[in-house]
Amino acid sequence: MIAFWNRRIRSGILTENPEYDNEIVQIRKEIKNQVKKKFAGSLAIRMVDSGSCNACEAECNALSNPYYNLERLGIYFVASPRHADVMLLSGVMTFNMTPHVQDAYKQIPEPKWVISMGDCPIMQAPFEQTYAIKAPAEKYLPITHHIQGCPPNPKEIIEGLLAFLRKI
Amino acid sequence: MRLIARYAKELKNTFEIVTVWDEIIEKEQVSKENPCIKTLTKSHPSAIWFERKIHDDFGIIIEDAFDNRPLVAQERFPKSVYPMRKSFQEKNIDFADYHPYKYEAIGGDGVFEVAVGPIHAGIIEPGHFQFSQAGEDILHQEVRHFYKHRGIEKMLETKTLFEAKPIIERISGNESIAYQLCWRDIVLKATKSKLPENNRKYHALLLELERTIHHLTDLGFIPNDAGFGAALAYASKLSEEARRHLLTIAGHRFGFGAIDFKSHKLDTEALKHYLDTLEEAINFFETWIIDIPSLWDRFDTTGILKKRKAVKYDAVGVIARASGLKLDCRENDFYHTHGFKIQGQTSGDVSARFKVRLDEVKNSIEMMRNFSVETCEEVSLNSINNGVYSAFSESSIGETYMSIEIKEGKIERFFMRDPSFINWQVLHLMMPGNIIADFPLINKSCDLSYAGNDL
Fold first, then answer.
1. Predicted model pTM
2. Shared-domain flag, residues B121 and B164
3. CB B408: neighbour CB atoms within 10 A?
4. Partner B contacted by A109 (CB < 8 A)
5. Do the beta carbons of residue B417 and residue B5 sit within 8 Å?
6. Residue A7 falls within a domain, yes or no?
7. Number of domains in chain A
8. What is the reported pLDDT for A27?
9. What is the pLDDT of residues A32-55, one digit of tens each?
10. CATH of the domain at B405
11. Cβ contact (<8 Å) for A67 and B240?
12. Residues of B in contact with A50 (CB under 8 A)
């Protein structure tokens, strides 16, 4: 265990992009002023995959690694739509997932927003319309903001979330 | 013989059922008027998903099957619609009436069912698990997937091999390069072209890097599911660094578009330096994690897959190797001369699968050193010939099999069998005797793909 702590001290802090910390202070101020009652300073996200290749999920998981450490900005991925403010949607809307995605959206308490990520939900990815796809997602859900990329890298996701926060 | 795949295709007057074994390929013709086949499940239980899929895709009846429930077509999918038939060309179908799916369940006093999914609590892909429980103990688990079914097989028909490439690399983000290598081998076979040694090494390097990234991610998530979060912080740092290295080499964090026939340059010095730091970090990780008894108390004897069962269910990949099977697509001269050693364990539990992943990362580092080449040249390809071509590659999950039939330069039938398609059917064998709280741990130790399975 001593070896572990030695290494821990030698590694130091890896988290990048401290500039977001300043930006988030601004954003937090905006949140507090504008949507104080809605968010109370923290944003809970429910990630829903409606038919992605798993790259978007991998990048969202990467947001919690020591390089990005998203939770320090007060943004959390939560386990249930009932705990969420925002649904983060990835993947082409498949025939089989569409009813379940709509169910999950219904479970999110008001007020609620949907952010789509990646090129799939807007059908910009190389995938084409087939019998098994019910895209684009905006036919089924009111999408407030879209984060582009195939997949968007963790930095782009953070920037996208900030852009969303400014928008509402 | 080991069953690799079983699928159907439509010919002019008949359907053809192709059964791919490790030694031979069997073909059977059935009439279109009354399409019926006999099941293989009595000797090879994992044939059942292939056969249920054949029924959903083509409407071919499996005469003596014990399980006739739909697989890909879910509750709201219209009846008697068989999308893989050539006559079916609809791009949009409406939701039909709701037909409930009858889950496998065990009855009895106090036995209850737990439904998990399709949307799960973590940031993971959708799929459904239905448990029959006696208190905390799992009696039985049914895996039900195909929520992410995108109709890739149909989507790729009538495309050329090069038009299909961007879609193929995005079928499963975890195995993009493995899929692309299958595609590469099929292009080479169809054009009767040869790949220079340096290009082969460069591609093999990318595959090993991709495998390393996903093994590192799992090495973090498996202990995390046993409540040891520090390992996730450590391993996710390593996997992020590996992913950034993939970005430097291939220009994409997931290697989309990485495998091609163009010339490439590689900074071997930077790679060597990176591999040295990774090796040091992974050796530290091993000595650290081996020394945490409470963690191994959770890993040992959890989710055992016996070798006998692994053989019976035709398991592949990490799962098979952790249960004592010597099964790896990289068992050939090319890999052996570059330092490949097959890794394996015999206990078949979570700890065996964890150790196999750890050993494979170490072996991959050694191989990546040998695959490191300064440059590789542009390859000129001949024209594409008609025929049926197939290829294998070893992704971080296991053996990937792709078969493409080409007619007049275009894809006539695309078939892909992800290692997960077999291994998901093996998962339920690991459950009895474990408590439901260990399910996430067992599931993560297998780390199967949903997207590749569902296509």
1. 0.90
2. no
3. 8
4. no
5. yes
6. no
7. 1
8. 60
9. 555 455 566 678 899 999 988 899
10. 1.10.645.10
11. yes
12. 126, 148
**What is the domain count for chain B?**
2
Q: B177 with B53, same domain?
A: no
Q: How many other C-beta atoms lie within 10 A of the C-beta of residue A153?
A: 18
B window 59-98, beta carbon within 8 A of A: 74, 76-77, 81, 83, 88, 90-93, 95
Q: Which of B89, B112, B144 is the last residue of a domain?
A: B144
Asked if residue A5 is part of any domain, the answer here is no
Flag whether A9 is in a domain.
no
| Closest residue to A132, CB basis, from B150, B253, B451 | B150
Enclosing domain of residue A130: 14-167
For B450, residues 6+ apart whose C-beta sits below 8 A from its C-beta are: A54, B124, B125, B126, B127, B145, B147, B148, B420
Tell me, what DSSP letter sits at residue B264?
E
Q: Judging by beta carbons within 10 Å of its beta carbon (0-12, 13-18, 19+), is residue B102 exposed, middle or buried? A: exposed
B208 contact partners, CB below 8 Å, separation of at least 6:
B364, B367, B368, B371
* Terminal CA-CA length for chain B: 26
Torsion of Cα atoms, A138 then A140 then A141 then A144, to 10°: 10
Inter-residue contact B210 to B246 (CB < 8 Å): yes
d(CA B255, CA B411): 24
Q: In the predicted model, what is the mean pLDDT of residues B91-105?
A: 87
Tokens of B375: 């440059």
Q: Name, in order, each residue with C-beta under 8 angstroms of B338's C-beta and a sequence gap of 6 or more.
A: B201, B204, B367, B370, B371
Task: Kindly report the CATH number assigned to the domain that includes residue A57.
Answer: 3.40.50.12280
Q: What is the ipTM of this complex?
A: 0.87
Contact B165, B355 (CB under 8 A): no
Residue that has been written with the tokens 């101020």 in this structure: A29
Assess whether B179 and B220 both reside in one domain.
Answer: yes
B31 and B158 assigned to the same domain: no
pLDDT digits (tens, 9 = 90+) for B229-262: 889 988 999 999 999 999 999 889 999 988 988 8
Q: Identify the helix (H) or strand (E) that includes residue B127.
A: none
Same domain, B213 and B351: yes
Contacts of B284 in chain A (CB under 8 A): 3, 7
Q: Both B200 and B90 in a single domain? A: no
| A55 neighbourhood in chain B, CB within 8 Å | 170, 173, 176, 254, 256
Domain that holds residue B95: 3-144
Question: Are B239 and B220 contacting, i.e. CB atoms less than 8 angstroms apart?
Answer: yes
